[in-house]
TrEMBL record:
This is Transketolase. InterPro entries: THDP-binding (IPR029061), Transketolase_CS (IPR049557), Transketolase_N (IPR005474). Keywords: Metal-binding, Thiamine pyrophosphate, Transferase. Residues 6-253 form the Transketolase N-terminal domain. The lineage of its organism: Bacteria, Bacillati, Bacillota, Clostridia, Peptostreptococcales. One of its GO terms (molecular function) is metal ion binding.
Length: 271
């Protein structure tokens, strides 16, 4: 897992730098999802950065589209485009907009941003793959605050109804959204009980442990007749001490001083 840890640390540094450069963006929920995307793009998914449109590739949908920096940083780390493009985040005419745009950036399968619509697209793609008797697998990362959208539960209901065992939804359960704690804004718990009632294969992991993430994806691959949801317990702002578990870092950019502190902390990890 050493190489995965190295990639994750590089991705975190890229997230900080690109959001600092743009003076806007969403660091908290991007940093919390780093290990999940690192494992997907470097171990789990059948993909080819040199042929990002190949028919039999697995698909990824970032349902919480505002966390675009983690997707962009991961795609660059994986070789879909040069890392020097990252500092164009949110700038005019840049392919790296505030939310992912599948028409502008290699590796983006679905344009997302409106919460709830990403997982709905993922369900549709997974159903299409089933109809075509394709081996394509579909992965979608949702925010836990996103689960307050009714559209999410309609998608979950359809996924279970059509027995989409080629679909894996991953909930980035960092416990915070823009206005504070999830349970204070609109309580979503108990997620495990709700999702089991929706007839999902439900797994709970430490979302920063590659070992637990690996076991969960292996379990999902071996599960037949049920879609899988992985509830990944994470820390918002993971890796940067002053951002961790702080709802205020949901959508704020660091100052130069804060950027320097964050990069120094990440470099000191010794990965």
């Amino acid at each position: 897992m050493k190489s995965l840890q190295l990639h994750a640390n590089n991705i975190r540094k890229s997230i900080i730098d690109m959001i600092y450069s743009s003076k806007s963006g969403h660091p908290g929920g991007s940093l919390s999802a780093v290990e999940i995307l690192t494992y997907l793009y470097f171990k789990e998914m059948n993909i080819d950065p040199q042929n990002d449109k190949k028919q039999d590739r697995d698909r990824f949908v970032l349902s919480k589209g505002h966390a675009a920096p983690v997707l962009y940083a991961t795609l660059a780390e994986r070789g879909y485009f040069e890392k020097d493009k990252l500092n164009s985040l949110r700038k005019l005419y840049s392919p790296l907009q505030g939310h992912p745009d599948s028409k502008k950036l290699p590796g983006v399968d679905v344009s997302t941003g409106s919460l709830g619509q990403g997982i709905s697209n993922a369900v549709g793609i997974a159903l299409g793959a089933k109809i075509d008797n394709s081996d394509v697998r579909v992965y979608s990362v949702l925010g836990d605050g996103e689960l307050q959208e009714g559209l999410v539960w309609e998608a979950f209901m359809a996924a279970a109804h059509y027995k989409l065992d080629n679909l894996v939804a991953i909930i980035d359960n960092n416990g915070l959204q823009i206005d504070g704690k999830n349970e204070d804004v609109m309580n979503i718990y108990s997620l495990k009980d709700k999702l089991k009632a929706f007839n999902f294969n439900v797994l709970e992991v430490d979302g920063h442990s590659f070992e637990e993430i690996e076991k969960a994806f292996d379990n999902a691959r071996n599960t037949k007749g049920l879609p899988t949801v992985i509830i990944a317990k994470t820390i918002k702002g993971k890796g940067v001490s002053f951002m961790e578990n702080e709802a205020g870092w949901h959508g704020n950019a660091p100052s130069l001083e804060q950027r320097n502190i964050a990069i120094e902390e990440l470099q000191s990890k010794g990965v």
